[in-house]
Design goal:
The complex is a heterotrimer of chains A (about 375), B (about 325) and C (about 325).
Chain A: H1 2-23, H2 27-36, H3 39-56, H4 58-61, E1 84-87, E2 90-97, E3 99-103, E4 113-117, E5 124-128, E6 131-137, E7 140-144, E8 147-149, H5 166-202, H6 204-218, H7 222-232, H8 239-270, H9 273-279, H10 285-321, H11 333-336, H12 343-348, H13 354-377
Antiparallel strand pairs in A: 1-2, 2-5, 3-4, 5-8, 6-7
Chain B: E1 4-16, E2 27-39, E3 43-48, H1 54-60, E4 69-75, E5 80-82, H2 88-97, E6 98-101, H3 115-126, H4 132-145, H5 150-154, H6 162-174, E7 180-184, H7 192-209, E8 212-217, H8 220-226, E9 229-234, E10 237-243, H9 244-249, H10 254-262, H11 302-306, E11 312-315, E12 318-320, H12 325-328
Parallel strand pairs in B: 3-8, 3-9, 6-7, 7-8
Antiparallel strand pairs in B: 1-2, 1-4, 4-5, 9-10, 10-12, 11-12
Helix pairs in contact in B: 3-4, 3-6, 4-6, 6-7
Chain C: E1 6-17, E2 20-32, E3 37-41, H1 48-55, E4 63-65, E5 70-75, E6 78-81, H2 88-94, E7 99-102, H3 106-109, H4 116-127, H5 132-145, H6 151-155, H7 164-176, E8 182-186, H8 194-211, E9 214-219, H9 222-228, E10 231-236, E11 239-245, H10 246-251, H11 256-264, H12 305-310, E12 315-317, E13 323-325
Parallel strand pairs in C: 3-9, 3-10, 7-8, 8-9
Antiparallel strand pairs in C: 1-2, 1-4, 1-5, 5-6, 10-11, 11-13, 12-13
The chains are: A alpha+beta (about 375), B alpha/beta (about 325), C alpha/beta (about 325).
Chain lengths: ~375, ~325, ~325
């Protein structure tokens, strides 16, 4: 009898605790609680984290240097080596791949032909944490990689025409694209904050003027603009400089949309009654901005930023694909796809397309997370009667 | 030596609109030629329908709406201010002494601040306290007065009902110890059973602290029960003002009479008497000439369409603006 | 004994929300006779709007109706079980056909980019097979009937060109053009000025007499109910606490909530009387009180507080069909 009473009481306590938690939850916590309930968004967030970490730790996760320095001269345009555990000769605890021999002779019409040797002695076992090409990560010089193979090289996504490992290049490309996106979004955001902020806060003729300017910038067609800029880039610029230049341009072209968002949020929030209440206490503009306006649109702006990301990534990919963006050795998806259009590749070397799936996932992950955040941040109206 | 806390002399508030095509800029004549005097410590009611300008008048008296013509003079034991020319440090001082309670309890509280922070904000902005402990003490004191306990202070507005939120609004208005509070439709958005609660709270605050209230509402029955003095507004002008009892016992203006008879009676057997108004409220951009009420007044005559009625004394403390007030009573 | 036009039995409705299953309407039963005006009175959270929307199945997708809920519509000798109509074609017979609804915010109810006339004609043509010309004729007639001046001109105007009161009249015109048997009016006068409200109330009373239709009049304003309704049902937190004729409920209220509500109203005939609110706050629907749903705020239940806390009161039916759900009215717990 007393046990059930105690259980009932603890149930009531738990309920009460939950309610109290709801009552004292700040904005951030409420948004997180609502976000957690959306499965697509949570899956997207998980994938996003995985991809970002893969890009960041790319040198460790991949066995070889993605540049020319790490190429495999003996395995040009090579098919992916997929490790297996068992074959006709029995199973092994360690995954292994097969050896191959390349030969060219009159029988093969002088084309390079790869012959796979499936004998037991020709097995090459995958090893974990081997020493390999050196790289710098977080300021440290390291040379341990996640996996490798005991002899020769392993290419789980195959190689390209010069023998570079596609898997290594893919992860590096993710990193590059994210870096370009970050710089671009950052620049766009700073510009949008200033221009949209002034526009939204002061209103009146300042607003009209700035909006005209914003609209003018927004109507500039991007491809012709980039073509002009690409013609302008001196050939002598290093690829890193080129990389920064492209990122900055993306930022400068992308700010109008964000600026409009910032302005809209500010215009709405400025007219809220609680802002008027603060002003009637004699609050300065600084106080109103700091305490009321900025916190109110932080959640919306974060959503807008996350949603702008995939557009930056896609713009850069498109540009590099047509040759106007990044070039070797700086590596991004667009760069990797530059060589994909020949019939040879389409017919024979389909593994060149594997990175595409990574990028589709990356972009979709961003979109789902952004959408989920927007849905989670919006319903403040659900507290009205 | 008067006991008048705040008075408006021939006050007009006009809002210019954007020009459409050529010609004169249209102007919304929200308030026109307002004359009122609010006594210290009184509960002054301002009643009117939409387009009457009552909200604008309330805001003008707080210097939250621009004064186009006329003046508003505020006099208390320490200072006298002419609101038209108020700025800088004096304006800040006036903000301490006058506060506003909003209508919509859902929009008036920032959803991102705890109740404690919301109530403390005026103290912090106006620099009225010197330490966090002092602020906390003051906040707790006021919150208790408005029946909000310590737990409530830690919560966010989304945890509260309409009536509770309105009490938070009231606490915020009280914390700076003002002498004059404008309550703009403060109970209109609340359930009927809660309205009485909030009204009682306002009344008790007024009695205890001697605060002067300007209570704006469209609901005459609410005004009748809480206010000492009532002014009736129509289309930007005050048409009648009197102590509450007198307004009901010797109603002088046809509009006030219509307003009273339009209130549906709780007795099913008593149906409203004849004074139902026809037509719609005219636009404040182009108010009718002469007496602004002439387009809907059941007793309108030629004189009403051309001559603006003067604001005159009908009996002690009772003013009206109507040519035929005496004949119609 | 004529059959009621619409009969609601044991309507229980819950919503699936993030916080769980929330009960919005709990075991509500009432009837409306043809030509009768039933007032549904309640404050926020009382469930009156949700109940009304159930009659036209207008509730959101996350609404869950209980097994035992039944809404029956009797037109022309035929019975329709409203809650079982799933196909849109069947539902359309009810929505806008037999039952019409007008809302509180007339601005929100009219599409802003289509003329009023066009919307009225569209409504008529959906529910009948008349020609466009005939539909226009009937619409202009209805606009005249509701007292809109220059109706032919107004027919071609947009919602923003109408004032609040006129929009509400146009809304009434639109709702009545299909000659419904039941008009559901959800707070139709709350957003209107009191002088305009008086005009609209008069209009509705005239139309009831002329069209012999019933009205389910939802409001929180007891004064309006006193002037327009024949019978009243009082709701609190999803429960129906008292039902009776307007005179019964207003002059001799039987439920403590009704009494509290009437007491808290400022009355013009006694300006000296203090305002007595109903103590406490309306509980959140997530937090429904056990037993009698009103017990947390009831001031009259001191002696039998224990019972009010644990037992749900049974409906006691007094003389003249005056129903109340209260232990005090029903000391021996008999129906």
């Amino acid at each position: 009898m007393t046990e059930t009473a105690i259980i009932e009481e603890t149930d009531a306590n738990v309920d009460q605790k939950r309610k109290e938690a709801y009552f004292t939850a700040g904005q951030g916590q409420l948004i997180w609680a609502r976000f957690k309930k959306q499965k697509a968004a949570m899956v997207g967030a998980g994938l996003l984290i995985v991809l970002i970490l893969s890009g960041f730790f790319a040198p460790f996760l991949t066995p070889y240097d993605p540049t020319i320095a790490g190429r495999n001269k003996d395995y040009l345009n090579g098919a992916p080596n997929v490790p297996s555990f068992c074959d006709d000769h029995g199973c092994s605890l360690r995954p292994f791949i097969y050896s191959f021999k390349r030969s060219r002779s009159i029988e093969t019409n002088f084309r390079w032909v790869t012959k796979i040797d499936t004998s037991l002695e020709a097995r090459r076992y995958v090893v974990f944490f081997p020493q390999g090409d050196e790289y710098t990560l977080l300021g440290m010089d390291l040379s341990t990689h996640l996996f490798g193979v005991d002899s020769g090289k392993i290419h789980i996504f195959g190689t390209d025409a010069t023998g570079k490992d596609i898997y290594s290049r893919t992860l590096q490309a993710i990193n590059t694209s994210l870096a370009v996106g970050t710089i671009g979004v950052f620049i766009a955001f700073v510009l949008a904050l200033i221009i949209g902020g002034i526009s939204g806060y002061y209103g009146g003729w300042i607003d009209s003027m700035l909006q005209m300017m914003t609209d003018a910038v927004r109507t500039i067609p991007t491809i012709p603009l980039f073509m002009a800029l690409a013609a302008f880039i001196p050939a002598t610029w290093s690829s890193e400089t080129r990389f920064f230049f492209i990122s900055i341009i993306l930022g400068f072209v992308g700010w109008p949309t964000l600026a409009r968002r910032v302005r809209t949020h500010l215009l709405t929030e400025r007219n809220q009654e609680y802002v008027l209440a603060a002003q009637l206490c004699g609050a300065s503009a600084g106080h109103v901005i700091r305490r009321h306006l900025l916190p109110s649109f932080t959640s919306y702006i974060i959503v807008d930023l996350i949603i702008s990301f995939p557009y930056m990534v896609l713009s850069e990919t498109a540009l590099s694909f047509i040759g106007l963006g990044l070039k070797d050795p700086v590596n991004s998806l667009g760069v990797m796809l530059q060589n994909v259009t020949s019939a040879d590749v389409l017919l024979n070397y389909q593994w060149y397309f594997i990175p595409v799936f990574f990028f589709i996932t990356l972009v979709l992950a961003f979109v789902f997370v952004g959408d989920g955040l927007r849905d989670a941040a919006d319903p403040y109206a659900d507290t009205k009667k | 030596m008067s006991d008048i806390l705040i008075r408006a002399n021939n006050l007009s508030v006009h809002f210019p609109l954007n020009r459409v095509g050529f010609g004169e800029r249209p102007v919304v004549r929200a308030c026109e030629g307002i004359n009122i005097e609010i006594e210290k410590g009184s509960f002054f009611g301002l009643v009117g329908e939409s387009g009457s300008g009552k909200t604008t008048l309330g805001r003008a008296m707080l210097k939250a709406a621009p004064i186009s013509h006329g003046e508003v003079i505020y006099t208390d034991d320490d200072v006298t201010y002419d609101l038209g020319s108020l700025q800088g440090a004096e304006l800040k001082e006036y903000r301490k002494r006058s506060q506003l309670i909003f209508q919509d309890p859902y929009a008036a509280l920032s959803p991102r601040m705890t109740v404690r922070d919301i109530i403390a904000e005026p103290l912090e902005v106006m620099g009225l306290t010197s330490s966090r402990e002092e602020t906390d003490t003051k906040v707790r004191e006021i919150a208790e007065k408005c029946r909000l306990n310590l737990e409530h202070l830690r919560r966010f507005p989304h945890a509260f009902s309409g009536g509770q939120r309105q009490r938070i609004s009231i606490a915020r208005a009280l914390v700076s110890d003002p002498k004059f509070i404008v309550a703009d439709e403060s109970v209109a958005a609340l359930d009927v059973s809660i309205q009485a609660d909030v009204l009682n709270l306002l009344n008790s605050i007024q009695r205890e602290r001697g605060i002067t209230f300007l209570f704006i509402s469209h609901d005459l029955s609410v005004i009748a029960h809480t206010c000492d003095f009532v002014a009736v507004m129509y289309l930007g002008q005050i048409v009648e003002s009197a102590p509450t009892r007198k307004l009901f016992s010797e109603t002088a203006h046809p509009y006030t009479r219509a307003l009273l008879s339009a209130i549906p009676s709780l007795d099913p057997d008593v149906s409203g008497n004849a004074q139902k108004l026809e037509g719609e409220i005219p636009s404040p951009i182009n108010p009718p000439p002469g007496c602004r009420f002439n387009t809907r007044c059941p007793h309108a005559q030629e004189r009403c369409r051309s001559e603006v009625p003067e604001w005159r004394e009908y009996s002690t403390g009772h003013h009206v603006a109507c040519h035929f007030a005496e004949e119609l009573s | 004994m004529t059959k009621p036009l619409i009969s609601v039995k044991d309507l229980t409705l819950r919503f699936k929300t993030d916080e769980g299953l929330v009960t919005a309407v709990n075991n509500v039963s009432f009837e409306i006779a043809p030509g009768e005006v039933l007032g549904l009175v309640g404050e926020s959270g009382s469930g009156k709007s949700v109940t009304a929307k159930s009659l036209m199945m207008l509730n959101a997708d996350n609404a869950v109706y209980d097994e035992g809920s039944k809404i029956t519509l009797n037109i022309d000798g035929e019975e329709h079980d409203v809650l079982s109509l799933k196909r849109p074609a069947e539902q359309m017979v009810i929505r806008g056909g037999a039952i019409s609804m007008i809302f509180q915010e007339p601005m929100a109810s009219f599409a802003p980019a289509i003329t009023i006339g066009e919307q009225m004609v569209e409504q008529l043509m959906i529910h009948s097979d008349m020609t466009r010309a005939k539909a226009k004729e009937i619409s202009v007639e209805m606009l005249t009937r509701v007292g809109i001046p220059e109706p032919a001109e107004r027919f071609g105007q947009y919602a923003f060109e109408f004032s609040g009161g006129m929009r509400q009249r146009a809304m009434i015109a639109m709702a009545l053009s299909t000659k419904p048997r039941l008009l559901i009016a959800d707070e139709p006068t709350t957003a209107l000025d009191v002088t305009i409200q008086a005009q609209v109330i008069d209009l509705m009373k005239d139309l009831v007499a002329e069209f012999h239709m019933s009205i389910l009049f939802i409001t929180h304003d007891l004064g309006v109910i006193a002037q327009t309704a024949d019978r009243v049902a009082v709701m609190y937190l999803g429960n129906l606490v008292e039902t009776g004729t307007v005179r019964q409920v207003i002059n001799t209220p039987s439920h403590p909530y009704t009494r509290g509500l009437l007491n808290s109203l400022p009355k013009l005939d006694d300006l000296e009387a203090p305002l007595t609110p109903v103590p406490g706050d309306i509980p959140s629907p997530l937090d429904r009180p056990s037993g009698c749903v009103f017990h947390t705020r009831c001031v009259e239940s001191d002696d039998i507080a224990e019972r009010c806390r644990s037992e749900i009161p049974v409906t006691s039916i007094g003389t003249d069909d005056h129903r109340v759900d209260c232990h005090l009215a029903n000391p021996r717990g008999q129906a």
